[in-house]
Amino acid sequence: MTTHLPFGDPPAPRPGTQRAPAARARQRRRAYTVSELTATIRLRIESALGEVWVEGELSNCRRWKTGHLYFTLKDDGAQIRGVMFRSALRYLRFEPEDGLQVIARGRVGVYPPKGEYQLVAEHLEPRGTGARQLAFEQLRRRLADEGLFDASRKRPLPALPRRIGIVTSLDGAALRDIVKVLGRRHPNAHLVISPARVQGEGAARSIVAALRRLERVERVDVVIVGRGGGSTEDLWAFNEEPVARALAASRVPVISAVGHETDSTIADFVADVRAPTPSAAAEIVLAHQDEMTARIDRATARLAARVRRDVERRRAALHAVENRPGLAAWPARLAMRGRHADEMTHRLLDGMRAALAGRTRRSEALRLRLDALDVGRRMARIGTRVAMARERLGRAMGDRRAEWRARLGSATEGAARAAAARNAAGRRRLETTAARLEPLNPLGVLARGYAVCWNAAGTAAVRRADEVAVGDDVRVTLHDGALRCEVKARERRASEERDR
Fold it and tell me: Which residues contact 38 (CB under 8 A, 6 or more apart)?
C-alpha cells in the first residue's frame, strides 16, 4: 500500500534499500489544485448523497433581483446554507420567511467560488401547517395590514343595477344558478358574462383578465365573481394575490360568491359583499331592488289615497257652491254666454274678412293708377312720339332737298342762288323749330343731368326738402333708369336760410 503525502516529507527508506533519487520522488507525489480538489469533493458528495430531505429552521432568507432565494437551514447543533432557484420557487404556495420550520427536498452540492457546501432545494414544505394554509395566512395578514379588508372601503350595492357583470366558468353550475335566480326575480336584467377559468393552473390570471374585460364595458353597476363548491385546491384561485388586488381595484362594487357557506377565501375578505353561494349572490343583487320597488309601491299607494281624499274634498266643496241659490241657473247662463261669444266671434271674423277684401280692392285700384302715372312709362311714350316726329321731319327735309336739287338743276345760276338762299332760310327755320321742340322733350331735360325725385311709393314728386325725413326711402328717376335711395341728411340753400 502506497501513501501519498503531497505536502509532507517523503518516508524514510527501508533498511537495506537504496534511497531513490530526488527526481524519482517528485514524480511519485500528486499535487491537486484547489479547483481539482473542490471538484473531487463535489463529485464524491453529490454521488454519495443524491436527493435528500432536510428538516430545520429558516433564517437569513433573502430574495435577490435574479429571483433566486438564498437562506440558511439550521437546528440546535449545525447549519447549512441553501439556495432555491427561481424556476422551483414559483411553485411554492407560501412565502418563505425567517423562523419558519420547514422540510426541504433537494441535493447537497458544493459552491466552488467559496469552497462551501450548500443545499440546492427543489421544494419546501412547512412543518405542521400545510403549504396552502400557510400561504393563505401570510397573504391574509399582508392584505389586512394594507387595509384591503377594512369596512371603510366597502362600497354599497346599487339599488337599481342596470347591468350586472358575472365572472365565472361557462360550464359551471354557478352560472346556471345565477341566471336562473335573476331570470325569475328580474326577467329584464341585463347580464354581461365575462368567462374565466375558476380552478387549475392559470385560473388566477384568467379571473383577473375577465375582471379587466368588464372594466371596459360601460354602465356595469355591480359584478358577481364566484364558482360552485369544491375542495381547497379547487377554490385556491380565489386565494391568489393577483385576484385579491384585482377585486380591490374594481371601479364598481364586487360580490364574492365562492363555494358554499362554510368555505372562506381571500376574495371573500376583499370583496365589497360576501355571498355564501352564487344563488345567494343573485338574491343579494336584487334585494335592494325589491326594497326600492316596495318603497315605490308604498309611496304610490299613499299618494293615490291622498289624491282621492283631495278630489273628494274639492268635489264636496264644488257641490256646496253649486247648491247655493244665487248659482242655481249658473250653468244655463254660462252656456248662453258661450253661445253669445261664439256668435260675436263669427261676426268679428266676417267683418275682418270683408274689411280685408275692401282694402285689397282699393289697393289694387291704387296700384293700377300708379302704373298709369308711372313717369318711366310716360317718358317712354313721349320719347316714341318725338322719335316719330323726327322721322317725319327727316323725310320732309329729304323730299324738299330732292325738290330743290331738281329745281336747281334746271334753273339759272341766279335762280340757284335764290333757291339756295331759300333753302338756307328753310333750314334755319327747321333748326329753330327743332330747337323749340327740344326743351319740350322730358328725356332731353333728364339727359342734361337733371332727375325727378319721388316718394317711396312713387305716387308724388318730392319738390321740397322738408317733405321727407332722414331715414325715408325715395325713388329717383334718371335718363336711363331709376334709383331707390335712403335720405341720410337734409340741407337747405343759403338763400332759404337767410329768408328764415
Answer: 110, 112, 115
Distance CA 322, CA 332 (A): 12
Q: Where are the beta strands (DSSP E) in 161-283?
A: 163-168, 190-195, 222-227, 254-258, 273-274
Q: In this model, does residue 209 exceed pLDDT 90? A: yes
Cell 332759404 sits on residue:
496
Separation CA 482–CA 475 (nearest Å): 7
Lowest mean pLDDT among 70-74, 150-154, 382-386, 489-493: 489-493
Beta bridge mates, 108: 119
The stretch 48-60 carries a mean pLDDT of: 81
Q: d(Cα 490, Cα 469) in Å, to the nearest integer?
A: 8
- Look at the pTM and tell me if it is higher than 0.85: no
Residue 358: all three cell numbers together? 275692401
Rounded to whole angstroms, how far apart are CA atoms 272 and 279? Answer: 17
Beta bridge partners of 53: 105
**What is the rounded CA–CA span in Å between residue 210 and residue 204?**
10
Cell 432545494, located at residue: 121
Cell triple for 281: 349572490
Whose cell is 289624491? That residue is 307
Amino acid 352: pLDDT: 92
Give the separation between CA 171 and CA 227, rounded to whole angstroms: 10
Residues 69-72: contacts with CB within 8 Å, 24+ apart?
A: 69/96, 71/96
